[in-house]
Every structure is written in C-alpha cells, then in structure tokens.
Amino acid sequence: MKSKILSIPYIIWMIIFTVIPLGLVIFFAFTTQSGEFTFSNIVAMNDYLDVLFRSIEFSVIATIICLILGLPVSYLISRLARGKQGTMLMIVILPMWINFLLRTYAWMTLLEENGLINRFLGLFNVGPFNLINNSGAVILGMIYNYIPFMILPLYSVMTKIDESVVEAAQDLGCSGFHIITRIILPLSKQGISTGIITVFVPSVSTFIISRMLGGGTNDLIGDIIESQFLGNSYNPHLGSAMALVLMVIVILIMSLFNQFGSEEAVI
Amino acid sequence: MENIIISLKNAIVDFDGEQILKNINLDIIDKQFVTLLGPSGCGKTTTLRIIGGFQQMKSGSLYFNNKDITKLPPHKRQVNTVFQKYALFPHLNIYDNIAFGLKIKRLSDKEIKSRVQQTLELVNLIGFEKRSVQSLSGGQQQRVAIARALVNRPKVLLLDEPLGALDLKLRKGMQIELKNIQQELEITFIYVTHDQEEALTMSDTVVVMNDGIIQQIGTPIDIYNEPKNAFVADFIGDSNIIDGIMRKDFLVDFAGNSFTCVDSGFEKDELVDVVIRPEDIKIVPQAQGKLTGVVESVIFKGVHYEMMVESSGYEWKIQSTLHENVGSLIGMNIEPMDIHIMHKMEDKL
Questions:
Q1: Looking at per-residue confidence, does A87 or A125 come out higher?
Q2: At what angle do helices A236-266 and A20-29 cross, to 10 degrees?
Q3: I want to staple B163 with a disulfide (CB 3.0 to 4.6 A). Which of A85, A233, B171, B267 is the partner?
Q4: What's the rounded mean pLDDT across residues B112-130?
Q5: Using CA atoms, how far apart are residues B280 and B293, in angstroms rounded to an integer?
Q6: Is the ipTM beyond the 0.90 threshold?
C-alpha cells in the first residue's frame, strides 16, 4: 500500500503531462480543422517518406558510430582507479552542461567554409573542404550531442565486470581479442542495448541540429514536425499525425530490437 | 631426484614504494601439494599471482621446467588458477564455463564434451551442465571453478584461498577432496591460505611467509615440531613464547629456572626465544613442579581444556584433558625435548 501512495505524485504528473497530451496528439492526428474524423493527415505522410527514411538512416548511422566510439572508451574508463573514473565521466558529461544551441553553433564556426578547421588546413595549403551543410555534418552533430547517452550506460555495466573474471579468461588462454568478444561484450549486453535506445530515440527525432548543420537540404522529420507547429506551414493536425507515425515506428523498431536482444540472451 | 617444476628467483615486488616481496626464492617440486601460508599482507597471494602471470616483478625471474617465463603473458602459461571469489563467467552456464578454456584452444566438440564430462565427474557435479552460475551454492560454484581450471590439464594448479568463503564443515570436506584430486591427477598444486590447520592437513610442503619474506619451508611435521623462529611457532598452532638466555649447549635459563634442552650451537649467554607448545606443559602437584603458578582461567575447548596460568611474570597457555580449578596453585614440568630454542627474530632481520 505504501508504495502506491509514494507513486501518486508521479502518476498525477504522468497523467497531466504524458497521457493527456498523447491523447490530444492522437485526437489531432485523426481530425480535420473542423474537428471531423479523418485519415487524410496520416495519408499525407506519404509526401514526407523520404524525410522519414533519412531520419532513420542518419540516426542508425549515428547510433552505430556512437557504439563503436563508446565501447572502448567506456571499457577504459571502467578499468581506471575509482577516483579517476569520476573525473573521466565528468569530462564525458561536461559538454552537456553547455547550452545545446551554443554547442551546435560552435560546430558551425568550426566547420564553415572559412571556419577554424578550414583556416587551419589552409595554413598548409590544403582545402578548403566542404565540411558543413551536408549529411555528414548532421550525423556528426547527432554523435556529438548524444554520445554521452551511449557511454554512461556502457560504463555502468562495464564497471560491474569483476577484474578477476577478466583474469580468469586470460588464465584459460584468452588473448586480448577473445577477452573482448567472449567476456566484455557479452557481459556488457544490457548496457549496449540501453545505449542504443538512448542514442537512437533522440537522434531519430532530432531537429535544429539538422537545420543548423545540414544547410536546409538535410531536414529531418523533427524539423518538419516543428514547422507544423511553429513554422509558416502551420498545421498541428499534420504535425500530430507525423509525431504519431514516428512514435509508432520507434516503438516497432525498439520492440523488434528487444526481441532480438532477449532471444540472444536465452542462447 | 625430485624434479623442480617452478622456480622463483630473487623476486621483488613493490606497491606504491612499499616492498611486498623482499627477495623471494622458492622452488616448487613437481607433483607436490605446496601451501603458501601466512597472515594477510604477507605476500602469499602476490607470489601466486607472479606464477599465474598477473603480477609483474620489479626484479627477479620465474622459471617453468627450467625455461624462463618471466615475461610470458598469462594466457600462454601452462598453469591454471582457481580464483579466490571463483570468478566464474556469469553469462555462461556450467558446461560452457568449464568448456571455456578448451573452446579457446579449439579442441573438437567431441573431445571437449568428453573432457568436461570427466571433470564434472571428478568434482561431483554431473547433471549441473545446463544450470546457471547464479543458481549454484558457494560450494558448488567452487567446484565449478576447480573443474574449469582442471579440465585444461595444467601442469600446475594455483589456488588462491579457494575455500575461504565456505563454512567449516564444507571446507573440511573440500580439503580432503582437493587432496584426493591432487593425488589422483598427479599435478602440482600451489595453494594459498591463511589457515594453518588447512595447510597442515593438505600439504606435502608448507611455505610459511610473513612480511614479504619466506620464514620457513618444510613438511607440515617439520614446521610444527621444529619451527625456525618465534613467528612460525606462534603462527602454526598455539605457543608460549618466553624470553630466555642460552647458558651453554643443552642448558637454557627462563622463568627464573635452568632447564636442560636438546638445542645447541647458540652463543654463550645469547638472548633467545623459548617456545613451548601448550599441550607440552605437564600439570603436577605443586611440590613436584619445577615451575609453580596460579590458574587464572579455564575454558572448555571440546577435546581439551585450555588454562591460562600466571607464573614468574608470564601468562602460560596450557592445554590438558584434565583441568584444575581457577585460583588453585599448580606445578608445571616441561620435558627437555619439548623446549624449542630460537634465535631472537630481531637478530635475523
């Protein structure tokens, strides 16, 4: 009984800020401006399928790169002395203390045609390269912003791997490569799947980053949804329909992914 | 001639400037059950980790069958380890835990299966193949850890306080089982423990360590009966350690009396430690005792009574199957061969 009482504040919060808004999104998605039931908003998504696929493609790439970068870093941090682990995690999280827009502006000044990187390369008569306003820059922005969400869950499972288990594997004939494939990765599975979800979900609904670094030709579904509510193409009904479709797709992908993950756990 | 399988020469290990091993020399004889015994922090586990390849030495070298393996990484050594907290792989079932080393060596499935089966039989775990590590009791996990190491047929098995987490009864059972396994497989066991009884029960050779130094190497009987110094005497079994003066060969003064003893070769009037086992002090009527004392406490210990007796400024521990009442005056006699004379430890260090 007590536990139920303790959960009441959050339940109220959730009803007001999650359940009711979700209901409104669904309501808007299936109605016209005059309030009649319709599928036309959902059908209109057809025109934006390319944007939707681009969002998924970019976020899949960003998630994979975050995973590849995050795994070794997380492992190294988890093997450091306790005190140093805290410092290293601080450094990983530090960028998140700076305003998200500022961080992305900073990337613009770095990547611009006469930005810092090109000017530096210019000293050696290399370049200038086209570093911004392309898909790579958008993916870079995603990785930069979301990689802490990969490293933190990975670190938290890896730090629980007992050093003596690693030593036992060495003792039984494991070289460095086998230790990674047979011990570290299997024991980090929970962190890997959490990390993938916490990077993929915000990536797929990214906006602003894509507009600032993508130069208008790499808009993602998040940008389109935003413009339905705040932009000149104001249409909250279409916007709601898009948000709903995106949510359903994310849930589908995640449940497929979890299915795969849990099956693997059984084997 | 006995074959020396592992030889550690002039091993020195530092942790943060503190010397953990101070120039250790140790030869391990093939097919023996060797125990490294000492209090925590004495360097016994560090010594084991050097042999396993997990601890680098500041200086010194390690030979395996006369081959220098000082720089060889752990996965290339022909030794396997049973870790203190078992260190089983939590993501694998019992079968896969035990088969792990064989799979790394790419043996055929058939070979792996038969060897795992054999080893399961050896440690009495038939039928546990599909169980998860978490579903096993501490004693069972310990058996898996032993099986996982033994299945690789190592020349030398290293065991780091493997029974430390088990309850007394289980520990006694496992001690006998381990000894049987060692004799059956005819491989060398190097066993680390701080439990002197465990060391005496199982070992062919006991290596007593303290403060990063080997204090004594010998058979359990040697170590118990002929401790080399007061530390060994005190650590192995109970002892009364009393200050004495060696008057001449076979004559020692302590507790205000002169005693004949069986030791010789000390300097004249050398200050010595006199070690007397509590069970070697005979209680006699006061008039017949060379020493007299007052019984201060009596504790029933099961097989015997343990009495603390005040005499000539020392607290004497006496073990006897009979007991005297607290406060009574008693006489105490000691046979010459039960008086063990040792150089003062300060002289040695």
A1: A87
A2: 120
A3: B171
A4: 93
A5: 16
A6: no
Give dist(CA B57, CA B22) in Å, integer: 11
Using a CB-CB distance cutoff of 8 angstroms, which residues of chain A are in contact with residue B50? Answer: none
Phi then psi dihedrals of residue B7, to 5 deg: -135, 120
Please give the pLDDT value at position A255: 86
With contact defined as beta carbons under 8 Å apart, do B115 and B66 qualify? no
* pLDDT tens digits for range A71-117: 999 999 999 988 899 999 999 998 888 888 898 889 999 998 888 88
For B85, the closest chain A residue by CA position comes to A164
pLDDT value at position B347?
45
Domains in chain B (CATH in brackets) are 4-230 (3.40.50.300), 239-348 (2.40.50.140)
Residue A170: list chain B partners with CB under 8 A.
53-54, 73-75
B48 to chain A: which residues are within 8 Å by CB? none
A186 contacts B88? CB cut-off 8 A: no
Cα–Cα distance measured from residue A182 to residue A125, given in angstroms and rounded to the nearest whole number: 47
pLDDT for A208 = 86
- B199-233 pLDDT, tens per residue? 999 999 999 999 999 999 999 999 988 888 889 98
Residues of B in contact with A178 (CB under 8 A): 104
- Cross-chain residue pair B75–A172, CB shorter than 8 Å: yes
Model pLDDT, residue B170: 86
**How many beta-carbon pairs under 8 angstroms link A with B?**
61
Separation between Cα atoms, residue A242 and residue A205, nearest integer Å: 11
Residue A170 has pLDDT above 90, yes or no: yes
Give the whole-angstrom CA distance, residue B232 versus residue B208: 7
* Unique residue bearing structure tokens 């403060």: B211
The closest CB to that of A175, out of B52, B54, B75, belongs to B75
Read off the tokens for B204.
């062919």
Q: How far is B80 from chain A (nearest CA, A)?
A: 6
- In order of A60, B30, B121, B156, B200, the CA distances from B186 in angstroms are 56, 9, 17, 10, 19
Closest CA to B119 of B52, B64, B187: B187
Q: pLDDT class for A241, splitting at 50, 70, 90?
A: very high
Distance (Å, whole) CA B282 – CA B276: 11
What is the pLDDT confidence band of residue B301, given thresholds at 50, 70 and 90? confident
Dist. CA B285–CA B305, nearest whole Å: 18
Residue bearing tokens 């589908």: A252
Residues of B whose CB is below 8 A from A173: 75, 101, 104-105, 152
Cα separation, A131 vs A126, whole angstroms: 13
The residue extents of the domains of chain A are 48-266
Domain A48-266: homologous superfamily in CATH: MetI-like (1.10.3720.10)
Residue B142 tokens read as: 């310990």
Give the torsion through C-alpha atoms of B275, B281, B286, B291, to 10 deg: -10
Identify the bridge partners of residue B334 per DSSP, sorted by sequence position: B281
Q: What spatial distance separates the first Cα and last Cα of chain B, rounded to whole Å?
A: 33
